[in-house]
Specification:
Layout (H helix, E strand, L loop, with lengths): L1 E2 L13 E2 L6 H12 L7 E5 L6 H12 L18 E8 L5 H8 L8 H17 L2 E8 L2 H9 L3 H14 L6 E7 L12 H11 L3 E4 L4 H11 L10 H14 L10 H6 L5 H14 L6 H5 L17 H11 L1 H4 L7 H18 L3 H17 L8 H11 L5 H9 L3 E4 L4 E4 L7 H8 L9 H8 L4 E3 L1 H7 L4 E6 L15 E6 L5 H8 L5 E5 L3 H20 L4 H22 L10 E4 L2 E3 L4 H15 L18 H17 L14 H11 L4 E4 L4 E4 L9 H13 L5 E2 H8 L8 H14 L5 E4 L3 E3 L4 H9 L4 E4 L7 H12 L9 H17 L3 H5 L5 H12 L3 H12 L11 H36 L7 H11 L10 H10 L6 H13 L11 H27 L3 E9 L5 E9 L4 H14 L4 H15 L3
Parallel strand pairs: 1-2, 3-6, 3-7, 4-5, 5-6, 11-12, 12-13
Antiparallel strand pairs: 8-9, 10-11, 13-14, 14-15, 16-17, 18-21, 19-20, 19-21, 22-23
Helix pairs in contact: 4-6, 6-7, 9-17, 11-13, 13-16, 15-16, 23-24, 26-27, 26-30, 32-33, 32-37, 33-36, 35-36, 35-37, 37-41, 39-40
Length: about 1050
């Protein structure tokens, strides 16, 4: 086997090469997660890590380990007669279709589709299985395939990935699907539409993401291989050993089993500190050519090759980085840019302070700068360490330099970081300032109130309970103030851990805790230490205000305050369990909690007690407090599918597609046994699950709520509150699915009312949406339909002609009957609803239907009473029931025909007004049109013109034609007619009709006569009798007539208008003998 010296591993090229692979804790954990501790059905894994983190090399080592060529991680001890080996299918991503690349790898010919790929993989699996081998499909650089799919918007590519994942996830087969990516799966589809992004999210959900951390130790190991050619000079061998011990004791770098004298020796001229700083910095800033191997092969003035006789210390690393990676260091994307800029400024300042000693001082500054950026948090980097480090690596004493730097206000030791760092020139005397500021702090401050403001208290997930039930339970830490503020947990929080800092008796808390079972109380016994930390933080807060103008001092004070905040959080939260004096109380009992593990166990026990009825339901899409926007949309789609297709298998979801609503349907309804086939009736329905279903108890509780509304209406909000409270406390997202579905399933067993709109006869998608938004606006009532009421129902059934539902029974019939009456009432127009031209019984029945709000009261009380049957619901007399049926049929028929009768009356008036000889619509319409055919529409008045147009309209529907004519006469729709307006309507129709007849006659005369203009007049006297007459105003008049006309006109013109009219009417009436 050939040894590989490549920094980049190719899983195909290097499969037969030897690679000195270094196993890190992260790679061991990832291997065990895939092959050792994988108890779930998901065997598709996505390794996510930056470039150069060793993902490809891990895949190389994984193959060697599984095939027992070399055990890097774990030796999988297969059971007897089980798998002994693995067959690998390896692919490296390229800018092509995954379908094409896989077809080539699997040697498929002809036209290839997804099904052929899956069939070929299955064939390989079966063949391997026969040889007691598993199959591992590995695709390195998988992002290239995702980029291709995104660029070409290929849904088939995504579907193929999904199918491969589902093939691998079969828990009956020893198959694995492993891919590597440089970024999150969804990031490759950022340019897609929202709908396409949802599809990507769905496919992403098939994979388990495993974060691949950067293997610093592995790169150090490689570096040591390259640097073996450098031998440690005899004169510094002892210094080298002392240096290794110094660095190990400081804990400035991570140490594990790799740290040994041999490895350290092989790193020379690098020391253990400079090698770690180098590797961390190159991984942070380096790219490909600027990798570790670029450094090892460098031939510039900053090369490690130039220091064969001396150490390549941290300051040398600084010089190399600044001169080779300057653009990366100064980039705005560099998270350490501020620290680098500070180091640059300090170097400029040191040059002024030290003059001739600048070179040695600059090495100290460079070392301080890099160690603070890249060393381990908490490691010790003080004067003694720096002095010892330089003495061993540079053989000169830097203590005078450190003292001078400290006096110049350039460096100081920070307790919070345990390191010397730059101060950037502040002359603040911190110790003296803290002593002085103490006088300004009120010593009687409330510890509880201050902790509320200072500590961000966490929320704990009760992991075991959540895993076992599928319902995530959260306990929130909160500072206890007073008993008045205690509440039971609600909403997303399922319990509280109350931190008690005040001096309260244990007996008092034990007694009170019985009333708030979801509350835990912790009585602190290290309150003095906590109080001192709070006091220190308050001091720093006051000092920050005092020195707000001093930027450098403010930075120092901020960092110190932050350190003490972390200390306080550690005391308040983490040391809860390290202090055996703290007292934990719940439900009146003291519980010893000595570790975080014990706390989680106790929280699980508490959840099982107070939420004992919570069903096991594992669906993370909906079993949560707040639904995402896509799942809320899926909820609406699922409700719609249930309303439209509950009688069909799988709600008629397409088999080849898998939208979120289908996944929810399968887990919530299908697998729970709620939606299943009724073998007797031959169709699917929503029904009660079997007793072995996880949702059986929840269904019973829901039915119990329904039954509780038998005598009185109950607000639907109570149903929601019931299920979101102990002992269920279902998550709101689950309840938002459960209650609407349950209401649909039981829709024939109750009546639904709106607080303002009354009875809701139909459960539609819009109604469900309103319930979801405002359940408090709806009331529900169940009914007891039994005994003698059944007889009355039979009469109603005969009336509305509906049959009994064998599956639903009398309640279904009962609500359907009332629904028919409401439909009848809503189909009536305003005239029918208001007219009094009905019999007394018909009027009373109509009014009873209009005011009815409760189905039970309407059918058994209001309707019978309206027709005079006051005790009908308690009588068994069949003759009385038959009589009631006849009466209600007649009354309904009369109500239904009220508007038709009005039309008949209007029609008769029209026929009479035009003196028609026939009552047949087509005949009399032609008669009318012939009688007014001579009219010129342009000569008519506005109302007469519209009336005329309606009469001659081509409408061939009798009802529409009559209504259109009547609308003109009435001035509004005929259906809006009031009884008092009917005489006026008849009179107006007659007048308008007569006017058109006269207009037709006059038009006919005027157009055919040369004698003059015809006028038709009608005079009424006090007797009520009238005289009709026709006068022709002659256009050809004599001179004598003209003279008389002129004399009369001049004479009467002297009178006012009213008097002139009186005179003319009197003269005309005498001439007409009236």
């Amino acid at each position: 086997m050939e040894y590989s010296n490549n920094i980049s591993t190719n899983i195909l090229r290097d499969e037969s090469k030897k690679i000195e692979y270094v196993v890190t804790p992260n790679t061991k954990e990832i291997f065990d997660r895939i092959f050792v501790n994988n108890y779930g059905a998901n065997k598709s894994f996505n390794l996510i890590g930056n470039y150069g983190t060793g993902k490809s090399t891990f895949l190389w080592a994984l193959e060697k380990n599984l095939n027992k060529e070399k055990i890097f991680f774990s030796d999988l001890n297969f059971e007897q007669d089980s798998f002994v080996d693995y067959e690998f299918i390896k692919i490296i991503g390229e800018n092509d279709s995954l379908l094409n690349v896989l077809s080539k790898e699997l040697k498929l010919k002809g036209v290839v589709d997804n099904s052929k790929i899956i069939a070929a993989l299955e064939k390989r699996r079966i063949k391997a299985s026969n040889s007691k081998k598993g199959v591992v499909l590995v695709i390195d650089e998988f992002g290239k395939f995702l980029e291709y799919a995104s660029k070409n918007k290929s849904a088939d590519e995504l579907f193929l990935i999904q199918q491969i994942s589902e093939w691998a996830n079969d828990d009956l087969n020893e198959t694995y699907f492993i891919i590597t990516l440089h970024q999150n799966f969804s990031s490759y589809g950022n340019s897609l539409s929202n709908q396409d992004k949802l599809e990507w999210e769905k496919v992403k959900g098939r994979f388990v993401d495993l974060v691949f951390n950067e293997p610093v130790e592995q790169l150090i190991y490689f570096a040591s291989k390259k640097l073996k050619e450098f031998l440690i000079p005899k004169k510094i061998e002892s210094d080298f050993k002392s240096l290794l011990k110094l660095i190990q004791d400081s804990k400035l770098v991570s140490h594990n089993k790799l740290v040994n004298e041999e490895l350290s020796d092989s790193l020379y001229p690098l020391d253990w500190l400079s090698s770690n700083v180098l590797v961390n910095s190159l991984q942070r800033y380096g790219q490909n050519e600027r990798s570790l191997f670029s450094f090892l092969n460098d031939d510039t003035d900053y090369s490690v090759k130039n220091l064969k006789e001396n150490f390549y210390s941290v300051s040398n690393v600084y010089d190399y980085l600044v001169n080779t990676l300057s653009s990366e260091i100064n980039s705005s994307d560099n998270p350490h840019r501020a620290q680098w800029l500070t180091t640059f400024r300090v170097l400029e300042r040191v040059e002024l302070v030290f003059g001739d000693d600048y070179l040695q001082a600059s090495e100290v500054i460079k070392t301080i700068g890099l160690v603070n950026i890249f060393s381990k948090v908490g490691g010790l980097f003080d004067k003694d360490f720096i002095a010892s480090y330089f003495k061993l690596t540079r053989s000169f004493n830097v203590l005078p330099i450190l003292d001078k730097l400290e006096k110049a206000g350039i460096i100081r030791f920070y307790k919070h970081s345990n390191k010397i760092n730059f101060l950037e020139g502040t002359d603040l005397d911190l110790e003296q300032e803290l002593i002085t500021i103490s006088k300004e702090i009120n010593p009687d401050f409330s510890v509880a109130n201050e902790i509320k403001a200072l500590v961000d208290l966490p929320v704990l997930l009760v992991k075991r309970y959540s895993f076992e039930t599928g319902t995530r339970r959260f306990f929130e830490y909160r500072v206890f103030d007073s008993y008045q503020e205690l509440t039971e947990a609600e909403g997303v929080i399922d319990g509280y851990i109350n931190l008690v800092f005040d001096d309260i008796k244990v007996s008092s808390i034990k007694k009170k805790s019985k009333d708030f079972t979801s509350n835990i109380f912790v009585l602190y016994k290290n309150s003095t230490q906590i109080r001192n930390e709070v006091l220190t933080i308050l001091k720093f807060g006051r000092l920050i205000e005092k020195h707000s103008e001093d930027t450098n001092a403010k930075k120092l004070l901020d960092s110190e305050r932050q350190f003490h905040l972390q200390q306080l959080e550690n005391l308040v939260i983490n040391k809860l369990f390290n202090n055996d004096k703290n007292i934990w109380i719940n439900n009146g009992k003291i519980e010893p909690v000595v570790s975080k593990h014990r706390l989680y166990e106790w929280l699980t026990e508490i959840c099982y007690k107070i939420y004992k009825n919570t069903p096991v339901f594992n669906n993370e899409l909906i079993n949560k407090q707040f639904l995402s926007a896509p799942i809320n949309t899926a909820r609406k789609y699922l409700i719609r599918s249930i309303l439209e297709n509950d009688h069909l298998e799988n709600l008629d979801f397409p088999e080849e597609k898998f939208p979120p609503q289908k996944a929810i349907y399968i887990s919530l309804l299908k697998e729970a046994g709620i939606h299943k086939k009724n073998s007797k009736l031959g169709y699917y329905e929503l029904t009660k699950p079997s007793s072995d279903s996880n949702l059986y108890g929840l269904w019973n509780e829901s039915e119990a709520f329904l039954n509780s509304s038998l005598s009185n209406k109950r607000n639907l909000l109570e149903f929601y509150e019931l299920l979101q409270a102990s002992p269920y406390k279902l998550k709101k997202g689950f309840v938002d699915f459960w209650i609407p579905i349950f209401l649909i399933a039981k829709k024939e067993d109750y009546a639904l009312f709106h607080t303002n709109g009354g009875f809701v006869p139909f459960l539609t998608e819009d109604i469900i949406d309103l319930i979801h938004k405002k359940p408090q606006d709806f009331l529900i009532k169940s009914y007891d339909v039994s005994g003698l009421k059944v007889n009355l129902l039979e009469s109603y059934k005969e009336l509305v002609q509906i049959g009994d539902s064998k599956s639903k029974g009398t309640q279904s019939t009962f609500l359907s009957i009332f629904g028919n009456f409401l439909r009848f009432q809503r189909g009536l127009n305003n005239y029918t609803l208001k007219t009094d031209k009905l019999s007394s019984k018909a009027t009373k029945l109509r009014d009873a239907i209009m005011v009815s709000k409760d189905p039970e009261d309407a059918l058994f009380n209001l309707f019978p009473t309206a027709l005079g049957f006051h005790t009908l619901a308690i009588k068994e007399d069949q003759e009385v029931l038959n009589s009631f049926t006849n009466h209600i049929q007649n009354a309904i028929r009369e109500i239904r025909n009220a508007y038709d009768e009005l039309l008949n009356r209007v029609e008769k008036v029209i026929i009479d007004s035009f003196y028609c000889t026939s009552a047949d619509f087509e005949v009399y319409k032609n008669e009318i049109q012939s009688k007014i055919s001579e009219i010129s529409p342009s000569t008519l008045g506005k109302v007469q013109s519209v009336f005329y147009q309606r009469l001659i309209s081509p409408l061939d529907d009798r009802v529409s034609w009559i209504k259109s004519v009547a609308d003109v006469a009435l001035g509004k729709g005929l259906e809006e007619l009031l009884d008092e307006e009917e005489p006026l309507l008849i009179s107006t129709i007659k007048d308008l009709s007569l006017g058109l007849i006269k207009a037709s006659e006059i038009r006919n005369f005027n157009s055919n006569s040369k004698q003059g203009t015809l006028y038709s007049i009608r005079f009424f006297g006090e007797t009520g009798e009238f005289v009709d007459d026709k006068l022709v105003v002659n256009t050809n008049i004599s001179k004598e007539f003209k003279s008389i006309k002129k004399t009369i006109s001049e004479t009467i013109s002297k009178l006012d208008e009213a008097t002139r009219k009186e005179l003319l009417v009197e003269l005309l009436s005498k001439e007409m003998h009236i």
